Structures are given as C-alpha cells and as structure tokens.
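Lab notebook, bench 4. The sequencing result for the construct came back, and we need a structural model before the next group meeting so we can plan mutations. Quick request posted to the team channel:

Model the 3D structure of this chain.
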Amino acid sequence: MPKAAFHNLGCKVNATELETVMEQFRRAGYELVPFDEPADVYVVNTCTVTNIADRKSRQMLHRARRENPQAVVAAMGCYVQNEKKNEQTSRLAEDGIDLAVGNDHKGELLALVEEALAARAASPSGTPAFTERITDLTRKTPFEELGSARVRTHTRAFVKIEDGCNQFCSYCAIPYARGRVRSRDPQAIVEEVRVLAAQGAKEIVFSGIHISSYGTDFVPPERRRNDIPFYGEPGLADLADMVAAVPGIERIRLGSLEPRILTEAFVKQIAANPKVCPQFHLSLQSGCTETLRRMNRHYTAEEFAEGCRLLRAYYDDPALTTDVIAGFPGETKEEFAATRAFVKEIGFARMHIFPFSLRKGTAAERLPDHVSTKDKTVRAALLADENRKLAAAYEERHLGKEAEWLAEETVTLDGRVMTVGCTREYLRAAVPGRLAPNTVIRGVLKESVADGESGLLLLRSGMDEI
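Done. Here's the predicted structure in token form:
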C-alpha cells in the first residue's frame, strides 16, 4: 500500500478541497500518513493570500523533498496558480517538485500522481519529468466537481458551493489565483449534503471564495437586476432552504458574507429558515469609509452598520464576527481611530485582526503613504485588545441564557472529563462528562471555564437531550 502525506495552507476552502482529494487517495488504496513521516507521495495545498503564505508554501515543498528525495512531490492551489500568472512556474520546478496543479485541476491530481510514480519506477534516473496542469482562470471556466469527503468530526461538514471572486479588492490577489465566480450546481450540493448527513453530519457550513455571489453566474445578462446585489436563481438564501430540507441536517452556517448581501429581503428569508445559525461572519476590513474606498470594498461604513442593524432586527443578539486590516496604505491616525470606534459601536462577538501585508501585483502596492511596520503592529495590538473586550462582553451577555449545543469531542480539563461543542451562536461550551458526538442538548450557559483560551463556557443546568 503506497503512503501519501498531505499538508494544507490557507483558508477553509483549501481545507475542504484537500479533504476531498485525500478521500480520493484513500479510496484508491493509499495509506494516509502525517506529513512529517516517510511517504511515497507528498501533496502541499498552497496559499498565496500574503507573501508570507507564498514563503510557507515553498518551505513545505522543500521539507517534503528533504523528507524523501525519492518521493513524488506535488504542489497544488493558489500559490501555484499565481506563479503561473506571473510566468514563474519554472521556479516551481527548481523547487524540486514533480507536479504543479492549479485551482481547476485538483480532481486530476490522483491520476497525475500515479503517472509520476509509474514514470519514476520506469526511469533509469528515477526522476519523472516536471508536469503542470494550470488553466488561465481569467477566462470563463466551469465549476470543478471534486466529490465528497468523509465527515471526520461527525458533527460539522464544510461544503464548497462556489469558487472565484469578481470583487477585486485592491489588496487581494485571490481573484487572480481563483478566477471569476463559478457556482456549483445546487443539485450536486444537495446530493453531497445527503451523503454527509448519512455519515452523521448534523451541521453544514457553506464554503467558497465569495459565497454571497452564489448563483449570480446562473442568471443571463439580460435578466440580471442592478437593484439587487448578488442576484442569483437560486441564490444563497434559496440554497440554504434547499439544504435545510435534507433529513438529518440540524444546522446551516453561511460562512463569510459580503456585507452588501444583507438586504431586508435576504435577511427576512434566512431568518425564516430555523436551521440557519444566528452567527454571521461579515468581512469589514475597515470601519472608515475613506479607507474602504481605497480598498475598493464597494460599501461604506454606514451601509455595513445598516446590514448589522437588519440582522439584529430579525435575530435575538446574533453573533456578528468580522475581519479587520490594521495599517492599510494611507490609513491616518484619524482613520484608524474611526475604525476602532466603529468596531466598538457595532459590538462584534469576535474579530480576526490582520496587520496589512503587501501583496505584489495588487493595486494596493501602488498606493502612496504606506504605514510603517511599527505602526501596523501597534494598531493591530490595539484592535486585538478591543477584540478581547468585545468577545468577553458577548459571552457574558449569554451567561444565564438557554442555548442549543452540539457535542463535538471529549477532552480533559483540570483533571475533569468534559465534552466540548458549540452553540448555534458558535460559542464554545463544555458539558461535564462524556457525551457522544452529535448529541444535541439544550441547557443554560452558567460560567466560564479556564482552558487556556477565551470562549469556553460551561453548559450546566436544565439539560435536556433533544
């Protein structure tokens, strides 16, 4: 039985795709082993969201080659795609890899690996020729079906519904690495969800590069409506309704949303679907409208706030989470102060804070007045402090409230056996004792538990299994 090792870098979409590819190898008879163990095949699913991600991708490829010089080493994903765009694919070959597979050929990886293994066995030098499969994604291409992965946690499953992005934020290289929006056929999505539900999944998370654009490429140009952002047939809310009808599915999370999708019609429709969890990740990036304009984010701080108001009008204290970039080019002290005040005004449940990282080839590279590394670090630290306060405040508001909780795993905390899971608001909570994964209960969030990280609450009294 040949051995294959895999390593993922980057986002949830990358992780979802790699899980599916790993399942293809498993079904083909490969033994899946950790990346730091000897293997016949090493696969690195690369990332290019920052220059640091590029460097980490190359480092993991070099590490694989050192681990076993005779192995087939394959790189796939966004770093590979972006290198091709920059006409630097030759550097991939120089990095010592055998296969370079772009974002629309991941389904071919198994066949390419087996060809490379056969070529290595037949070659006197034991070295197969460098092979690449990379399509120009700036042209219209179909959605690549990869099939379904196994549910490893038996509770939560990520389902890829879309690929690509048409937004072209000034700091982002992903539209070049992922191409234009390509929506997955809704029936294929529902069928995958049926398979996952049969394997025990209770919660489905929609994943994609820009899932708010789901279905927009289904609508012919003559029928597109300019007055409704991200109009599709079916659209994202319609897809959630279709998935909610699958027996066994208890929860749906929508992944990261474009703030402009939050029209009253959209929010009203998802609020009427009881399986959509009241946790919404809205990518803010800046709370200052002038900074948003330089970012090419297509909305104002006021419009973002209106979307949050709509969600709170239809849901009782939903968890609103976000991303914020600190120190974007041209961000003055006053603009940063506006962002800091804005995040406190919105009252996010949690924030992901990123100091601005320059991405070569993007519009942001050409912007004037880049912020110093020192100032970016200070601003990110100040926002991280706000995040701790906001997260603690949101958790405190839910203490004493009843919550629906889904069991995920059993751990030992301070010598006590506890089962950890998440509420519908994505608050991590623990129940004393050992419960089977997929157990759904209602209980009252009673107190915080120290486990080295914030956000772990104790679900105690009033527990009734449902």
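Confidence is low (pLDDT under 50) at residues 451-455, 461-466.
Will bring this to the meeting.
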